Amino acid sequence: MAELLSLEEALKRILERVTPLGPETVTLAASAGRVLGEDARSVVDLPPFPSSAMDGFAVRSADTPGRLPVVARIAAGVPAARALELGEAMAIATGGVVPVGADAVVPLEYVVEDDNKVEIPANVVHGDNVRPRGGDVAAGEVVVPRGSRLRAAQIGALAAAGLDRVVVARRPRVAVLSTGTELRTPGQPLEPGEVYEANGVLLATAFASAGADVDVLPVVSDNESSHRAALEGGLEADVLVTSGGVSVGPHDLVRRILGELGVEEIFWGVAVKPGKPLAFGARGSTLVFGLPGNPVSSLVGAEVFVRPALLALQGASVPGPVFSEGRLATAVRRNAHRDEFLRARSIASENGVLLDPVLGQESHMIARAAAADALVLAPRGEGQLGAGETVRYLLLA
Ligand code: AMP
Ligand code: MG
């Protein structure tokens, strides 16, 4: 491993190799988690008409205070048959169409109604409790810009704006291949020397949450022919992610065989802990990540390097990784040569988020990592980061 790339440089080289995938049209109901491929514009003014923000009475503000006859009752979805005349009031429900002639709504709780008349004790201000037509967004304006990831708020906005379909990026097809003769599928008994295979489902879960369509290939043992056949198949995907076999041992075959299959290695080795021997390459438009096999190394590599690539493939305007700031709950020793991603629990406190690194930070300790919801970045350097020190962290999706 000649020279270890910095985190920033590695991410830059990965994102440089990304060619965004083509678009497809999906129904809004099927768009959760997808990335919008073009600006979505509102079909209508929103609200589409001046609407009441309260249950109350529609009036002309100039007629208040006063005692006004109630000449109609307006329900949501059922506009009044006529305009409001001078000196009149109309009862109106939240979401009802404010009638022509009215310029304000007095809430029910501020008035007394009897004998089909409403007593309005105080002066009402023009525009009060009326949501103007187009006040949220106007017809033809952008509701959600391209490159946005569609979550509940965005999907709700698109529906409210009258869209039933959206153009999104095609899902990246990701092939996941775990390598290692020692790996057994959970559910079967372990023979001596074997461990349960964790990375296939771990990576599939991580990538699915980044919008990918994931194919977990059968595990291969550490021999050339099974590696070659499986890698060849995996290279048909948009992204091939392997785990294990990228270090310097005699049974680490992934990089060499990828090379023989025409994959250009763009880098191998990052100044990041865990996950130093990460390999990244490309063949045509297929991106290839070789993650080290320790499950925590695979997890960190997936979150820090693969997820941004998957989001960039989908044209996300912010592919990440998106760091937040918090403070360390306890002191941690820094690594002199590598930026370290510590598995930590995030705890909301009065002074912002506290990050408490879990006990057991070794890269095989996936069970310890299961208690964490955050990866704290401890930049390389001498000495320690003290309790209370500000750090950057990634939330685990
Ligand atoms: P490697 O990167 O192949 O040298 O593997 C490093 C360590 O991670 C070894 O202890 C492997 O047994 C373990 N390991 C590799 N792949 C997996 C996997 N898919 N699931 C669980 N442990 C793994
Ligand atoms: Mg191995």
3D structure, described in words:
- The protein is α/β, with parallel strands linked by helices and 397 residues long.
- The chain folds into four domains: 7-21 and 171-313, MoaB/Mog-like domain (Molybdenum Cofactor Biosythetic Enzyme, Chain A); 23-46 and 135-169, Molybdopterin biosynthesis moea protein, domain 2 (Alpha-Beta Complex), CATH 3.90.105.10; 51-131, Beta Complex (Molybdopterin biosynthesis moeA protein, domain 3); 324-395, Beta Barrel (Beta-clip), CATH 2.40.340.
- It contains seven helices and 28 strands.
- It has helices spanning 7-16, 152-160, 199-208, 224-234, 254-260, 295-313, 366-369; strands at residues 23-27, 40-41, 51-52, 56-59, 66-74, 89-92, 104-107, 112-114, 117-120, 130-131, 142-144, 165-169, 173-178, 183-184, 195-196, 213-216, 239-243, 264-268, 272-273, 279-283, 286-291, 324-328, 332-333, 339-349, 352-357, 374-378, 384-385, 390-395.
- Strand 24 (339-349) and strand 25 (352-357) form a beta hairpin.
- The longest helix has 19 residues, at 295-313.
- The protein is elongated and about 95 Å long.
